[in-house]
Amino acid sequence: MSNATTLDQTMARVTLQTIADKVGVSRMTVSNAFSRPDQLSDELRTRVLAAADDLGYVGPDPSARALARGSTGAVGMLLTDSLGEAFTDSVATTFLASVADSLAEAGLALTLLTPAGTQGNVPARDVAMDGVLVYVCEPDSPDVEWLRKRRLPLVGVDQTPVLGTAHVNVDDRQGARAAAQHLVDLGHRRIDILTLGYADHSAFVDEPLAERNNFAGRQRMLGWLDALTAAGITPRVVLSPFRPAEAADEGARLILTGPDRPTGVLCFSDVYAASVVHAAHALGLRVPDDISVVGYDDNPLATRLDPPLTTVRQDIEAKGRLAVATLTAVLKARQDGTPEPTDHVSLPVELVVRGSSGPAPQR
């Protein structure tokens, strides 16, 4: 018999009672050392864990413990993109970090879920978890439908509110309205919009609202149009896909090289705004003397641009904390058999004026 086989058999025979007998405590005390450490003194827990280590015991089997408790201790987050795409987006990574930290404080782990059809995807219907944060994905996506069929507690983030489900969103419409009004107040009358679209390439569109299939994009478009329509301005709108990254560059060139170039550009995100600033520099245009640019999000990129970017700030970390707090409240209500929170919360935003916007040039 090999040493490996002997070790496996020895470990298989070690139980909580084995450790309890070695330390001279009850089986419950050993169990608490692993699952409820706050019930033991630091000295006693250290002795129990040391004995377990000597005996080759690594702790209760997670699957068995989850079955016994009726919970996994894990929360899923359904993303709209592949992990590779999500981790290249500073807004998404900031949100993920805030969620992960908040879950850790609540004693929960984070499981990342990607859309059906994504390479290496594990279907959301097959993952063991106690609840789910649905980030950006629209309510009619196949993954969300499966999660609802499983009757898992859900909280939507940055997505179209659904009756009976709690949501945490940002007041995107108000933020976009403030951004557009800022350019109007500076005297701009030729204003274009570069925003998110899902075609294969960037293009001007005649009915931008009809093209929107992203909640944040729809809300921002409505906000821009609120201010521009009231000022008698009809913007030209270019839709650009989020991937590849060069698509926004293409959209920026469409706006800046065509006839009747605008004096101001409103952008779906700071990333899109950076494309406009870079395209302007490449064409010999001065920002903001020749063209004013306004972004959205206020991610770290905004202050690294030259000039620094005027943008709409959303508190991404607060959004992550509130999303977790809302989901843990739903989980507790489900456990207690009380009504689950179904509030639709909209976090405030703030226009941050920097050097990329200025008075409309006289032509």
Protein model, in words:
- The chain is of the alpha/beta class and 363 residues long.
- It contains 15 helices and 13 strands.
- It has helices at 3-13, 16-23, 27-35, 42-55, 62-69, 83-86, 90-105, 142-149, 172-185, 208-211, 215-230, 246-257, 270-282, 301-304, 316-336; strands at 74-78, 109-113, 131-135, 154-157, 166-170, 191-196, 203-205, 236-240, 264-267, 292-294, 311-314, 344-347, 349-352.
- The strands form three sheets. The chain has a six-stranded parallel sheet, sandwiched between helices. Strands 7-8-6-9-10 form a five-stranded mixed sheet, with helices on both faces. A two-stranded antiparallel ribbon has the order 11-13.
- Helix 2 (16-23) crosses helix 3, helix 7 packs across helix 15 (316-336) and helix 9 runs parallel beside helix 11 (215-230).
- The radius of gyration is 26 Å and the shape is elongated.
Tally of alpha and pi helices? 15
Strand content: 15-25%
The tally of beta strands, per DSSP, is: 13
Structural class: alpha/beta
Cα distance spanning the termini: 91 Å
- Helix fraction by DSSP (H/I, runs of at least 4): 40-55%
Query: Looking across the biggest beta sheet, what order are the strands in?
Result: 2-1-3-4-5-12
Q: Could you provide a short overview of the structure?
A:
The chain is of the alpha/beta class and 363 residues long. The protein has 15 helices and 13 strands.
List the helices and strands and how they pair.
Elements: H1 3-13, H2 16-23, H3 27-35, H4 42-55, H5 62-69, E1 74-78, H6 83-86, H7 90-105, E2 109-113, E3 131-135, H8 142-149, E4 154-157, E5 166-170, H9 172-185, E6 191-196, E7 203-205, H10 208-211, H11 215-230, E8 236-240, H12 246-257, E9 264-267, H13 270-282, E10 292-294, H14 301-304, E11 311-314, H15 316-336, E12 344-347, E13 349-352
